[in-house]
Amino acid sequence: MTSVLRLFRDIASESYNDEGYASNTSLEQIDVEAIVCNIYRRFEHKAAIDPSLPKLIRKAHCNVLKDWLMHLPGNYSCLDASRPWLIYWILHSLWLLKKLPDAETLSKVVNFLKQCQHKDGGYGGGPMQHSHLGTTYAAVNALSIIGTDEAYDSIDRSSLQTFLWTLRDVDGSFALHNGGEQDIRGAYCAASVAKITNIYTEALFDKTAEWVISCQTYEGGFAGCPGMEAHGGYAFCGLACLALLDRTQLCDIDALLRWSVNRQMRLEGGFQGRTNKLVDGCYSFWQGGIFPIISAILAKDNKELIETVLFNQGALQEYIIVCCQSPEGGLIDKPGKPRDIYHTCYTLSGLSVAQHGTGTGESLVIGASETELNRVHPLHNIAPHMVYNAVHYFIRHPPPVKDDN
Amino acid sequence: MSDCGDSDAGWIFYKDRPDWNDIKPVPEDDGITPVVVIAHSEKFEDVYDYFRAILQKDEKSQRALELTKDAVELNSANYTVWQYRRELLKELGTDLRSELDYVESVIKISPKNYQVWHHRRVLVEWLQDPSQELDLTAEALLHDPKNYHAWQHRQWAIKSFRLYDKEIEFVDSLLSDDVRNNSAWNQRYFVHNNHTGWSDMNVQREICYTLEKIKFVKNNESAWNYLRGILLHDKRGINGNGVVTAFCEELYKNRCRSPFLLAFIIDVCEEAIKKNETNGFHNVERAKELCTALATKYDKIREKYWMYLRDRFEMYVCVNGENSQ
Ligand SMILES: [Zn+2]
């Protein structure tokens, strides 16, 4: 299916009306719109004389990602406790771009992740760091992307299950690490990891779905914990967790859908993370990724919906390709922001969702056909076949000690 | 990404400190095939080599406590360092009041970091003293009125220690600064939901408050979402409150076409249909018309969604054989 770009004239006509009452929110929104509008205007001129536009500068992205996989500049010291995350973001981005590194490099990654695995189960942010659920999720996803027996066998699943038990609270919620904070990311990461590695048990997730649903807010999205504001990242975690636990019937889907569709910005085309906040490339996935899950739920009553996602796929792709690419490679939050690995991963993941929707219908690609990315599994954000392969490997190879709680 | 700054003159490396010469530094062991290798500064390497040594030995000492400060300064997101620091505080019986001041100073530098706020929370729990938390979070929210971490900490303190008394005033002042601050609207809901309760009188008072705000900024999604939120607690439902429906029809008549107004009227229609309470204003045809208007004119970015809702209303007609005016 081909899609037409929005006309600059139509984009510009969507600009913010502050109704004569300026406030911080409206002033910041108007600033961003001015910058984005300018980019769309210049883009329309360029595209008129260059039929290859809009295009994804694949080579630049692949090159910088491959560099990052080996070496990072000193300003990444702040992510020294997130190294498995860096690996997952990089490998997943490269896979989306259809350029996974060779087997030798991937084997190096497996070795390194072994160094991050803690003897008491799970993975830390680096060698000799305590285990953390976020970095454990990232490591398991990265190893599933690598997908070799060596990668699968490097995970100590018995101790991983023990680790998950130590983080679980009686109310079904999960802390991110021992002695650490507890929020909806914990529940999602635990469910994702347990499902993929086949260490999931009913007892381990008893009441988790009920706890997660207590985070759905009056706006319809999910918050990090009960009472807080609905937020894109947490909404993805909440819905994906319920889907992994097969408990989406607890969710007010109409309210979630209303909230989610309203996060798409009328002028920019990208998503904001919360009501009245600014557009940001990473929410392309956190918000965009919610839609295929919603479609699957709604399709239980109306089969046609499995082929569509209810957001504007074209406008999101425009925002990502026109406004979020750094010319030197890597993707960004919004124009004017520096590139980073996190935004590269989630902006590309969102682009993939925008192109493939639920994955069952035809794809819709803005720009040249080489812009098309690989497809993702909406619950784990790695390739669907990678999830399948890992799950089936782990079913064939049960962990030495089975949970008997 | 914040600058992990480490450019202070007069800094002495741990490896050059006589009082640390009994410790053998432990370099990071990335294995034989390192990847994602960060080009840390020499200072970073040095501090963390010694941190790993202390951690490995499980040394609980004053100098270890000082070392964790240096480690935090280089990377305040290192949860292992914070966790170890908490173990040290307990073991050494350190004055937790000075620790509160310390973490406050780190929060001021890194206000959007999970670890610093969590550390603060644990300290307040240990001390059972929330007396500074409202001021601390108010200060953080002054710089960034939508800082999620600050709001989360504030909610935790309020809920755990019943500090609801002046919270509505605080919310009011934030909303008068910026009526579009959704975090402040959410906090308003939090106070009513956990403290004031949803008595009929309170619901009506909140409705009036919200309609007043919508009157002067009609395009403010936060206020409309809040309105829908409080109507969840109105026994008459979203379509049964005459004040609200009259307000909306008045706006519509005065040519307001804010997508949030139109969307709200659609919700009123939907509930009226479900409850068999349709009337000249709120019925299937009106809902379908509004969906079309939104899809084609007032909210084009959400065309697919509005057409989906329109189709759903179509199905109501089929299923219920509904007669609309
Ligand atoms: Zn972002």
TrEMBL record, chain A:
One of its GO terms (molecular function) is protein farnesyltransferase activity. Its EC number is 2.5.1.58. Its cofactor is Zn(2+). One of its GO terms (biological process) is lipid metabolic process. It catalyses: L-cysteinyl-[protein] + (2E,6E)-farnesyl diphosphate = S-(2E,6E)-farnesyl-L-cysteinyl-[protein] + diphosphate. Signal peptide: none annotated. Residues 57-382 form the Prenyltransferase alpha-alpha toroid domain. SUPFAM superfamilies: Terpenoid cyclases/Protein prenyltransferases. Binds 1 zinc ion per subunit. GO terms for cellular component: protein farnesyltransferase complex. It is an enzyme of class 2 (transferase). Catalyzes the transfer of a farnesyl moiety from farnesyl diphosphate to a cysteine at the fourth position from the C-terminus of several proteins. The beta subunit is responsible for peptide-binding. Essential subunit of the farnesyltransferase complex. Catalyzes the transfer of a farnesyl moiety from farnesyl diphosphate to a cysteine at the fourth position from the C-terminus of several proteins having the C-terminal sequence Cys-aliphatic-aliphatic-X. Heterodimer of an alpha and a beta subunit. Belongs to the protein prenyltransferase subunit beta family. This is Protein farnesyltransferase subunit beta. It comes from Pieris brassicae (White butterfly). The lineage of its organism: Eukaryota, Metazoa, Ecdysozoa, Arthropoda, Hexapoda.
TrEMBL record, chain B:
Keywords: Magnesium, Prenyltransferase, Repeat, Transferase. GO terms for molecular function: CAAX-protein geranylgeranyltransferase activity; protein farnesyltransferase activity. Its cofactor is Mg(2+). Its EC number is 2.5.1.58, 2.5.1.59. InterPro entries: Prenyl_trans_a. One of its GO terms (cellular component) is protein farnesyltransferase complex. PROSITE patterns: PFTA. It holds the Pfam family PPTA. Belongs to the protein prenyltransferase subunit alpha family. This is Protein farnesyltransferase/geranylgeranyltransferase type-1 subunit alpha. It comes from Pieris brassicae. The lineage of its organism: Eukaryota, Metazoa, Ecdysozoa, Arthropoda, Hexapoda.
